[in-house]
Amino acid sequence: MIIYSAKNFNIKSSLSINQNKIGKNIFTQNYDTFVRTTSFSGLSKKNDESSFNNFIKWAKENDFLSNITDIADYTGKILGSGFEGEIIEIPNCDKWVIKTFKRSKMVNIARNKPEIIEIKDFSPELNVGQIIAKIEIPHGKNYSKVYYILKRQSGISYGVGFDDSSLLSERNVRLHHNLLKTLAEFPQSSFDECIKNANTIDNLGYEFDCTNPHNFMLDIETKSINFIDINDLNVHNKNPYGDILFALLGGDFALNILNSDCSENIKNTAINYSNSIINKYFSAMKKNNKKFEVQGLFTKLLDTNILDSVLKTNSREERIVELKKQNLM
Question: Can you give the pTM of this predicted structure?
Answer without folding.
Answer: 0.75
